[in-house]
Amino acid sequence: MGDERGLLSRLLTAAAPGLILFSAVLLMITPLKVFGHSVPLPLAPFIVIFLYAAYAPNALPAPITFAAGLLQDLLFASPLGLWATVFLSLHYAVLAQHDYLKGRLHRVIAVLFAMLVAAVGAILWGLSSLVFAEVLPVRPLAVQLLVTILMYPACAYVFLTVRRSERGPSPA
Q1: H-helix or E-strand containing 150?
Q2: Which whole-number Å values give the CA distances from 36 to 33, 39, 143, in the listed order?
Q3: Is-above-0.70 flag for pTM?
Q4: Closest to 47 measured CA to CA, from 165, 166, 123, 154
Q5: What is the pLDDT along the chain (172 residues), one digit of tens a residue?
Q6: Most buried among 44, 58, 157, 169, by the most CB within 10 A?
Q7: Which residues, at least 6 apart from 108, have a Cβ–Cβ distance to it below 8 Å?
Q8: Which residue ranges run through the membrane (predicted)?
């Protein structure tokens, strides 16, 4: 019984990053209205991908990130591969900076998040404009990116608090 519980716990721990990322993708299709007006949702998958790539790079494999991007493509009726390309661009950009991020202040990491989200947003806008053969409006995406950047500190706090609690108290 104990071995089964340990196995189940390990399976859930291994699956959690992917489940969280897929939940973030599903959150993107949730309509949010306040006083009858649509409210831009943060690009929650960007936050999830960044946090796992920065703090637990082995926990979220690139194929899962790719699959989440394909799911977002299907849910948004985007050209197949658009979101997958954007998600993988962010994933690999953070992995490339992993050594730099170690031991940095959270403020520095938040600034890097903002810079990478802006860069990936520009890639998303450029690819979308190219695919649809017209210059798409920048403002809706810019607002969504701003909301994402503003949500990052709270999400990072929760993520890091949970990670700390999973590891238990640090030895004195």
Answers
A1: helix 139-167
A2: 6, 9, 18
A3: yes
A4: 154
A5: 567 777 777 887 788 899 999 999 999 888 777 777 778 889 999 999 999 999 999 999 999 999 999 999 999 999 999 999 999 999 999 999 988 888 899 999 999 999 999 999 999 999 999 999 999 999 999 999 999 999 999 999 999 999 888 776 555 4
A6: 44
A7: none
A8: 12-32, 39-56, 76-96, 108-128, 140-160
